[in-house]
Write a structure and sequence with these properties.
With 185 residues, this protein is an alpha+beta fold. It has 5 helices and 8 strands. It is globular. It starts with a strand and ends in a 7-residue tail after the last helix. Keywords: 4Fe-4S, Iron, Iron-sulfur, Metal-binding, Repeat.
């Protein structure tokens, strides 16, 4: 079973700290070698997004589906399953947006990243490459997802098989004991 992140809208305060942690975490792991203070609006591309409603806010993040529709439709096989999560191999991604259309949760997106294109041996220009962007559970971090670690209200939790089974057992126990005795007979 894949690990995944769940967000509790009852605890989320909409502070966007998770988004910042995500960008910083992936910037440190990237090959772009930009310093943290060089992150700008153009290259601020979190893999988690806070959505705010009238009276509630919550984070929306990839569900790490077991039979991921995004991976199934990718023509280049750029969305890869590794043990208990999916990630995008940017070297294979062609930015076709098929994964965005296939994702039932709206968590896949295609972003533009500046790249240097070589025109001739002496001439290069800055261009933009479209590439898929999704949560990869910060697989490059031994500590796990950065968003979960920094959430000030613990609204984000990374769930694995054991945690899911414990949650189900607790809910069953709670439901069983909250049922009134007069309803049983």
């Amino acid at each position: 079973m894949n690990r995944f992140i769940i967000a509790d809208p009852k605890k989320c305060i909409g502070c966007h700290t998770c988004e910042v942690a995500c960008v910083v975490s992936h910037q440190q792991a990237s090959q772009d070698n930009l310093a943290i203070d060089q992150i700008s609006e153009q290259n601020f591309q979190p893999r988690i997004h806070v959505v705010k409603g009238f009276s509630i806010s919550t984070a929306v993040v990839c569900h790490q589906c077991e039979d991921a529709p995004c991976a199934n439709v990718c023509p280049n096989g750029a969305i890869i399953h590794n043990k208990d999560y999916y990630y995008v191999d940017q070297d294979k991604c062609i930015g076709c947006k098929t994964c965005v259309l296939a994702c039932p949760y709206g968590t896949m997106e295609v972003v533009s990243r500046p790249v240097m294109r070589k025109l001739t041996a002496l001439n290069t220009i800055e261009a933009f490459k479209a590439e898929a962007n999704k949560c990869d559970l910060c697989h490059h971090r031994a500590e796990g997802p950065a968003c979960v670690e920094v959430c000030p209200t613990q609204a984000l939790v990374c769930i694995d098989r054991d945690a899911l089974e414990d949650m189900v057992k607790e809910r069953r126990r709670k439901a069983a004991f909250e049922t009134g005795a007069d309803l049983l007979f």
